[in-house]
Amino acid sequence: MTPAALAELIVRRAADTPGRRFIAALAGPPGAGKSTLAANLVSLIGKAAKVVPMDGFHYDDGILIARGQRSRKGAPETFDVAGFAHLLSRLQVEDEVAIPIFDRSLELSRGSADIVGSDQRILIAEGNYLLLNEAPWTDLGRYFDLTVMIHVSEAELDRRLLDRWAQYGKTAEEARAWIDGNDLPNIRRVQKHSRRADETLLWRG
Fold first, then answer.
1. What's residue 5's pLDDT?
2. At 139, which CATH number?
3. Are 175 and 161 in contact (CB under 8 A)?
4. Is the model's pLDDT at 85 over the cut of 60?
5. What is the spatial distance between Cα 84 and Cα 128, in angstroms, rounded to a whole number?
6. Is residue 205's pLDDT more than 60?
C-alpha cells in the first residue's frame, strides 16, 4: 500500500464514523519513518488531519536515571503509557486538547506544545509500540479505528539510525553502541511482539 492509498483509505473509513474523531494508529520500529509518513499523510488528507506522537510521553531523563533506565531510553518501559491512553480518551470526546511533543534536540518532552483543534477530526497516532502485544500497551487498542504497521528491513533500519544519531552529534562509535544496546532490542521487540495490523506498508521515505 502506498501513502496515497493509505490516506484515501483513512478518509474513506473516517467518513463512516461521523460525529467523532477517527484515530488511525501508525506503528513500526525505530527508524521506520513513522514521523515522516504521518506528516505525509496529514499533507495528503489536509487540514482535517493532525499527527499525535506517542513520543511526547517519554519519561524525563531524571526519572530514568533514578530508575536505572537511562541507557534504555526509548524502550517500552520508559514511556507513560497510562498518560498516552488518557490523552487518547480525551481526544475522543473533547473539542480542543493540548498534546505534548518530544524535542529530540533537547532530549525531553515539552508539555502542551501543540493543540488538536475542534476541526481536526482525523488523527494519526504514531509510535513504536502502539501495537505491542504486551500489557499495558494492549489497552490502547480500544482507541484505534484503523491500525497500520510499517515494515522495513533491519539492515535499512540500522543505516537510518546511524544517520540519525550522527545528525544529533553522536560519534560513529557512540551511535554504534547505542544502536546495538538499545535501538536493535527495541526494533526486534516491535517486529516479534506486535499484534497484526489492519494494514501493512513498506515505507521507503
1. 95
2. 3.40.50.300
3. yes
4. yes
5. 13
6. no
32 neighbors 203 (Cβ within 8 angstroms): yes
- Please tell me the predicted confidence (pLDDT) of residue 57: 98
- pLDDT of 19: 85
Q: Cβ(21)–Cβ(104) under 8 Å?
A: no
Look up the domain containing 130 and give its range.
3-201
Q: How far is CA 169 from CA 143, 162, 178, in A?
A: 37, 11, 13
Cell of 152: 522495513
> How many structural domains are present in the chain?
1
Burial of 62 (0-12, 13-18, 19+ CB in 10 A): exposed
